[in-house]
Amino acid sequence: MRSLLPLSLFLTVLDVLHTVRAVVPFEVITSNNPPAHRLGRRAVPISNNGNAAYMANITLGGVGVSVILDTGSSDLWVSFPGTPPTTTDTGKSISLNYAVGSASGTIHKAELKFDNYTVPDQAFLQVADSSSFSTNSAFNGLVGLGPSDGSAILDKIKGNAGETMLSRIFQQNKTSSNYITFLLDRKNDPSASFTGQFTIAETVKGLENITSQTKLNVETVHRLLDDQQHWQAITDKDSVIGPDGTTLAIKSIVPKAPKGQLVAVFDSGFTFSQVPRELSDAIYGRVQGAVYDAKNEWWTVPCAQELNVTFHFGGVAFPMHPLDVVDDNFKILDTAGNRVCIGAFQPITSAFSLFGNFDMIMGMTFLRNAYTLMDYGEWIERTSNDRGDPFMQLLPLTNRATAHADFVKVRLNGVDTTGSSQFALLPASQQQHSPVSAEEKKKKYEEMILSRWPYIVTGSLVGFILLVGFIIWRCCCRNRRAKKKASAKGFFEPKSETYLPLQVHGQGSPPATSSPYQHHQQESQQSLNSQQAAYNHNPQYSQQNFHQPPPSQYYQQGYPQQGYQQQGYQQQQQGYGYAS
Ligand SMILES: *[C@@H]1O[C@H](CO)[C@@H](O)[C@H](O)[C@H]1NC(C)=O
Ligand SMILES: *[C@@H]1O[C@H](CO)[C@@H](O)[C@H](O)[C@H]1NC(C)=O
Ligand SMILES: *[C@@H]1O[C@H](CO)[C@@H](O)[C@H](O)[C@H]1NC(C)=O
Ligand SMILES: *[C@@H]1O[C@H](CO)[C@@H](O)[C@H](O)[C@H]1NC(C)=O
Ligand SMILES: *[C@@H]1O[C@H](CO)[C@@H](O)[C@H](O)[C@H]1NC(C)=O
């Protein structure tokens, strides 16, 4: 959970914005009629930075700061714009690593105000230098809205004092429910009917019936480690409907995912949604003029191409707004200098789950199409009410017909040419497939092993016991048989040498069926060796992960995440020249 790369894409995109800033003024929307306190209901306004980042204001140590709302991580860090206010320094330093950049500093405590709540001594990471993270001034930090299990600050400062902002807030009113909701607005949407809003233990006016939507269980597919818990849900069966109106059947990488269903993480820190490569290819690979940009790892398509994509969760259809599916927020040019748009359901690469915890990440491109409720339930300690299982509820916001009209207005100058031959999808047989890099092949292979390690370990153990049992039996039996040999019937021999011993010794079933994972068990020995060789080439993997012997360290260091994050970061550094 911790540092689930929430910012990889977001920052990629901000960087793109930097390079094209002269072309596109990059303004922060501030709503004209803030909905806060409207009709007795509280809602914190959310600002939308070019459809690439969503932020809210908090007051920390008396200073107002703008922080990214990130459901993909669990820590609060702030880099004060001017001279930092006087706060309590705990003297403990930590470093939070994201796909792009890291935030390091010391943990401080200060009075925090958010919504209508005041936390007298909120723990947060005070970052002196966040330049490796971003030089963008649109925000001063980030507030993680994920479960506290993923909090690095809580790891350092145990107990109540180290709890996340939301835990501290929920603990103030022990009888209220432990949920948040958020509504992300879409910039450049001609029929936009709401502003960005964030609420705590209340719903946004007019959207109250989100509380009657299906409750999506977020713990169904077990993660292997506690800090790998995300805000996640399983899609319905065959739930993704592609641009040609048919189901896009994609196989899950999650070992326990039900057949035909995918595990989706909901992460407000990702600008673009991260989906399995086959899914991204199926959405964009049949568009005439589609080009895969291997450097940025996204598809580019003509901006006038309307693509309808629908996801299903909890038996409900979530149509994606075509303005979100083909993204025009970043003014990208192709090699010939023509404007093209980005396929905003991007192949998952740096965020790929090496432990096979999830298939895809629903970022802002998805979240703008749903009003989202996240109920923390029993994840919040020290509250008396709302002790149930955590869950999510989603209410669709996009109406297909209105969205189509919006698209025609914005991208086609009001003339509906979506039916013309230039926009017809190529036949499925002519679909383009984006190249899979060697790095990605390796990751997929590693995932296959790592996601199954508990079974592999169990399988190895069972195998070892069977082997020892077999050797013991052979020794004893040899002796006995040697004595019996003279009188034994010849035809009995072959059978007794094969499977009889195992049954005689009551070791359960014969070896071939003793564990369904036997196959993987054999695979694992080979591959772990080759993996270790591979990891050794990568100092981060070897130092941080494989060379830390005690298992407890793995937990503390957020084993799976840090490896891929930092790797992601390095890729970014190469691609965009980030200074570290
Ligand atoms: C955050 O605070 C700044 C400065 O007070 C203000 O200009 C801005 O509108 C606020 N943003 C939101 C989303 O409330
Ligand atoms: C906000 O908090 C103040 C003081 O705690 C309280 O008087 C006020 O009623 C609250 N407002 C709302 C809308 O709950
Ligand atoms: C606590 O929450 C309940 C339910 O939302 C509300 O009725 C009550 O007024 C709240 N108490 C305080 C002190 O804010
Ligand atoms: C939510 O409310 C609207 C009208 O306010 C209604 O049309 C819709 O059916 C309701 N949805 C659910 C899931 O209750
Ligand atoms: C997308 O869906 C809308 C609404 O159903 C429809 O009017 C439009 O023709 C569809 N566009 C394409 C390219 O399929």
Automatic annotation (TrEMBL):
GO terms for molecular function: aspartic-type endopeptidase activity. InterPro entries: Aspartic_peptidase_A1, Aspartic_peptidase_AS, Pepsin-like_dom, PEPTIDASE_A1, Peptidase_aspartic_dom_sf. Belongs to the peptidase A1 family. Residues 54-384 form the Peptidase A1 domain. It comes from the Eukaryota. Residues 533-547 have a biased composition (Polar residues). It holds the Pfam family Asp. Residues 1-22 form the signal peptide. Residues 514-532, 553-580 have a biased composition (Low complexity). Residues 502-580 are annotated as: Disordered. GO terms for biological process: proteolysis. This is Aspartic peptidase A1. The chain crosses the membrane at residues 453-476. It comes from Mycena indigotica. Keywords: Aspartyl protease, Hydrolase, Membrane, Protease, Signal, Transmembrane, Transmembrane helix.
